[in-house]
Amino acid sequence: MTIVNLMPAHRQAPVALWLLARDFDASAKKIAATGAEAVLLPAGHELAARLSDALGDSVRVVECNPELGFVYANPSAAAKVLSGEKPIPSCANGEGADSVIEGGTLLSEEGSRWVWPEGASEPVCLDATTTVAQLVAAAGAEEAKAVYVGYPAGTLVCAADGDAQVELASDYVRVYTANSCMANALNEICQLYRHETCGRCVFGHEGSHQIATIVADICRKKGKPSDLALLRDLCPVMQGQCLCEQGRVMARTVMAFLDLFEAEISAHIGKKTCPAGECKAFLTYHILASKCQACNACVDSCEEDAILGRPRFIHVIDHKACTQCGACLGSCEYGAIVTAGAVKHATGSLDLDRLGGLAKKMPKTCILFLIGAASISGLPPFNGFASKWYIYQAAFEKGSSSGNFFFIFVCVVALLTSVLTLAS
Description:
Structural class: alpha/beta
Largest sheet: 5 strands, mixed
Low-confidence stretches: none
Strand content: 5-15%
Strand order of the largest sheet: 6-5-11-8-9
Helix content: 40-55%
Distance between the termini: 78 Å
Mean pLDDT: 88
């Protein structure tokens, strides 16, 4: 049995449906020419009835659950949908009698492939085999770090390898930039696989659950030193034992992330820091005593009971219990709750080589910093200058009136110290 799959593997990349709507008549002819017995479309799609009329009785148009995406690329799962069963794979792609033709491949011109870059309003047409540099240019990304080709490819390539060849075996492409946290990127991918797992095989279901849990803990500042070694042990087993390609692709993708960005991911565990400044768990939350009204709004919003306090008493955050969920920020109408890590949050980096030009990104912080620096350096009209002036005046008057040049010497030393402090 041959089935044409128009279901988007990634919801943000409905390439096949976009191509169908763009040139419906030509697309319907291409589908009919395949001799397929059925076409899979999202339930309730506006073109379902029109496509059914165009294809006639020879091809069934089956509306499927749009909450899933990956599973419909598996022929054995797609065949079960036609009989009214749940789309649960019984074998990997190519191991059964049925076959699935991907809509994005079918409706693209020969030798080319339409792909949907993350954040784009519509897909772009590229060669079916392209380069990393062309993918980065198509996405319009600056300071690219890596390129990810979605399911069923699951390919991750370093953006520095601009001439590397990439097979576009997916409708979805995402370019990660210097401001992207690769641990968080891996976490988003793993959570998607965890949602898509069918539960048919132990290694696919439990393996994806364990990997997603481990990576999520790393991004929540709960990672353990043994986590990365555990992932490297688990992924090869999943690649060899999973019943279908979902678990195998997930394991391959995780290994690619570890091979290319293990140091960045490891920093979340060993150094307890997010180098890109993207993971919220690595920011700390504090309550300003000068603004806290002891209203208990933040206490009520915290599900972890991490805020200590009661009415009419200033509240304090227990950082050991705090999960950095940020719920307290929105609950306080007095602005008493703030996050620490302003530079990391504004620039997305802790790399000193990339922290130039902070005044443009943080103008208010820059102004306050300059005022504080001028004050501590003793420049007029700030308080530091007033205290130093009294020292100069007292020492000079004492030396002049008593004829003791020691006090004049003290005055000169104080002046030199002030100059050196200002220079620093």
